[in-house]
């Protein structure tokens, strides 16, 4: 390891985090498709469509911002700066909360 290179464990941890965000986006997309296509008895169609679209939108958000997040963290690690903050956890928490509320409404209406 040279003086310019960060400890490889930090780089690999950053990569694992990036891959976790990608896996999460794929899982959200799969759930969105599943809600719309495979559970027709789960609430009214407009609510299922709204839940599926919300899940797909969260998946798109995660997939499109996870690489930028990885790059910003990598740059910070390599330059010795503090790690940047991210809105990703807050956006995902709010999005999942909205989807849970939609699911509860669908259960109650079903």
UniProtKB/TrEMBL annotation:
The keyword Cell membrane applies. Keywords: Cell membrane, Membrane, Transmembrane, Transmembrane helix. Signal peptide: none annotated. Residues 9-74 form the DUF202 domain. Its main location: membrane. It comes from the Bacteria. The chain crosses the membrane at residues 20-40, 47-67, 87-109. It is found in: Cell membrane. It is a multi-pass membrane protein. PANTHER family: DUF202 DOMAIN-CONTAINING PROTEIN (PTHR34187:SF2), FGR18P (PTHR34187). This is YidH family protein.
